[in-house]
From TrEMBL:
<feature type="domain" description="Lactate utilization protein B C-terminal">
    <location>
        <begin position="418"/>
        <end position="499"/>
    </location>
</feature>
<keyword id="KW-0249">Electron transport</keyword>
<keyword id="KW-0677">Repeat</keyword>
<protein>
    <submittedName>
        <fullName>Lactate utilization protein B</fullName>
    </submittedName>
</protein>
<feature type="domain" description="4Fe-4S ferredoxin-type">
    <location>
        <begin position="337"/>
        <end position="406"/>
    </location>
</feature>
<dbReference type="InterPro" id="IPR024185">
    <property type="entry name" value="FTHF_cligase-like_sf"/>
</dbReference>
<dbReference type="InterPro" id="IPR004452">
    <property type="entry name" value="LutB/LldF"/>
</dbReference>
<dbReference type="InterPro" id="IPR017900">
    <property type="entry name" value="4Fe4S_Fe_S_CS"/>
</dbReference>
<dbReference type="Pfam" id="PF11870">
    <property type="entry name" value="LutB_C"/>
</dbReference>
<keyword id="KW-0479">Metal-binding</keyword>
<keyword id="KW-0004">4Fe-4S</keyword>
<dbReference type="GO" id="GO:0006089">
    <property type="term" value="P:lactate metabolic process"/>
</dbReference>
<dbReference type="GO" id="GO:0051539">
    <property type="term" value="F:4 iron, 4 sulfur cluster binding"/>
</dbReference>
<keyword id="KW-0408">Iron</keyword>
<feature type="region of interest" description="Disordered">
    <location>
        <begin position="1"/>
        <end position="22"/>
    </location>
</feature>
<dbReference type="InterPro" id="IPR024569">
    <property type="entry name" value="LutB_C"/>
</dbReference>
<feature type="domain" description="LUD">
    <location>
        <begin position="95"/>
        <end position="320"/>
    </location>
</feature>
Length: 507
């Protein structure tokens, strides 16, 4: 989507009818991963940016994880908590709803993206506002909330610095934690100079690519939006069932501005984000920052429970989002993906992601976790979703760093099997048919003996040849790289009978 160059209104707010800044990221028609990756590999600037950034994050993570002598115990605890929660997810969700409602929040349930977007649009319209400020949220990107708000004539302003860069640059996020990781400082400067003036306070004309100057320009640009907005929209890193609380962790403080200044706060939360208790939250507040930003704790951890009169938003709405998560939950193997806490550690160690970047995955969830989560949430009807389980070398580095111990390679193989099964349409592959025939033959000694007899009889047709050579038909590719021996003139059974005079070899 392109920006228009309308003059901003005196308040700094775009005039009525000004299109929302963002990307129409429906991902419809995206090429399969190998084709998209081939295009991204040609972007040498992006490859340098990714290698530099992921390398720094990897080193920081390794340093702070190495400080703990119980890191593996924390991983095991996080895995166990998530597994227990998923086994009893229905009970914990009901408990969360009851406690959040008691605290003054209004809880909504959304079956899919369409229903969630409709609820948000209706809630914003009820306030009479035509704009919202947003905390960085993967769930709202997943349901394409910005596009739904745009279609309803509501401007949605991303306030996370990296998300702001992506939004102003008409770009796609390419990383879960650092959406603009593929951009360097000079590119960010050009985006700010070119785009900020179209949607609010312009960037200073003498703006340089110094990080402090860039952050200052973003802060001044966003400040007027924070002070003006009546509605804030967030996701949540965690939802605590025994208190009805929501938790957002971040590094900039912009999220806290969105969570505290507006009169109305709407939070879109995936149903897998629930945790049973505060004691469980303690474990995740240790493993998440170390795995994501390489910090001992997040600079900003915001926790709120319902509504507090005279303090913060006076209207709190929570939308519990399914969007095919219950289908993932029904898969005993695939449900492990729902343990994900969106730390992005798997992206930072993945050799495939580091070279191909996030855009090649055709989803808001890139990297190894996206390769297993996206096909389960969206299905495998499209070429890109069918190809994602193959976007990996299965090296296992992703499992080694995952704070909730998701065995991503195991899930990739599981999903590859599903893709193959769907392509067959219920018909067995030639390989499966061959193995089934072999099982039938080995199931009876008489059938096995008959097959051996037929094989030894065929020996006479090959004369003195030692190998058969290439075989036509389905086995042509297999036989072209192997020397297939001619069947022996005599089977082991026949030799035994001839030499020992016994009917069967003794075990």
């Amino acid at each position: 989507m392109t920006l228009t160059h309308a003059e901003p209104a005196p308040s700094g707010k775009p005039p009525a009818g000004h299109p929302h800044v963002g990307v129409t990221s429906t991902f419809v028609g995206m090429p399969k991963f190998p084709d998209a990756a081939r295009i991204e590999l040609a972007n040498t600037t992006q490859r340098r940016n990714l290698a530099h950034a992921t390398g720094i994050i990897r080193d920081k993570r390794a340093s702070v994880v190495g400080e703990l002598d119980n890191w593996e115990e924390l991983r095991l605890a996080a895995e166990a908590i998530k597994n227990r929660t998923l086994r009893h997810l229905d009970d914990y969700l009901v408990q969360f709803e009851e406690n959040a409602t008691k605290a003054g929040a209004v809880v909504h349930w959304a079956r899919d993206a369409e229903e969630a977007n409709r609820i948000v649009v209706d809630l914003v319209r009820e306030t009479g506002s035509d704009e919202v400020v947003k905390v960085k949220s993967m769930a709202t990107q997943e349901i394409e909330l910005n596009e739904a708000l745009q279609a309803a004539g509501i401007d949605a302003w991303e306030t996370d610095l990296a998300e702001l860069i992506v939004q102003l640059g008409d770009d796609w996020p390419s990383h879960i934690l650092v959406p603009a990781i593929h951009r360097n400082r000079s590119e960010v400067r050009e985006i700010f100079l070119r785009r900020m003036k179209d949607v609010g306070r312009p960037a200073p004309e003498d703006l340089t690519d110094d990080p402090r100057r860039l952050a200052e320009a973003a802060r001044l640009h966003l400040r007027e939006k924070f002070l003006r907005a009546k509605v804030g929209i967030s996701g949540a890193n965690f939802a605590v069932a025994d208190t009805g609380s929501l938790v957002v962790v971040e590094s900039e403080g912009n999220g806290r501005m969105c969570l505290t200044l507006p009169e109305t706060l709407i939070s879109v939360v995936g149903i897998e984000k629930v945790l049973p208790s505060w004691a469980d939250l303690e474990v995740f507040l240790q493993v998440l920052p170390r795995s994501s930003t390489g910090e001992r704790e997040n600079p900003y951890t915001s926790i709120w429970t319902g509504v507090t009169p005279g303090d913060g938003p006076q209207n709190a709405h929570i939308i519990l989002l399914d969007n095919n998560r219950t289908n993932v939950l029904a898969d005993e193997v695939g449900r492990a993906a729902l343990r994900c806490i969106r730390c992005s550690a798997c992206l930072n160690v993945c050799p495939v992601y580091e070279r191909a970047g996030g855009h090649a995955y055709g989803s808001v969830y890139p990297g190894p976790i996206g390769a297993i989560l996206t096909p389960q949430l969206r299905g495998t009807s499209s070429k890109v979703d069918q190809s994602l389980p193959y976007a990996s070398s299965l090296c296992g580095a992703c499992f080694d760093v995952c704070p909730v111990r998701i065995d991503i390679p195991e899930l990739l193989v599981h999903l590859r099997t599903r893709v193959v099964d769907e392509h067959r349409g219920g018909r067995p592959t030639a390989e499966a048919a061959a193995f089934k025939a072999m099982a039938w033959m080995f199931g009876s000694h008489r059938r096995l003996e008959a097959a051996q007899k037929a094989a030894t009889t065929s020996n006479r047709f090959f004369g003195r040849r030692k190998t058969i050579g290439a075989i036509p038909g389905p086995l042509a590719g297999w036989s072209s790289a192997r020397d297939i021996p001619v069947p022996p003139a005599e089977s082991f059974r026949d030799w035994w009978k001839r030499e020992r005079g016994e009917q069967e070899p003794r075990s």
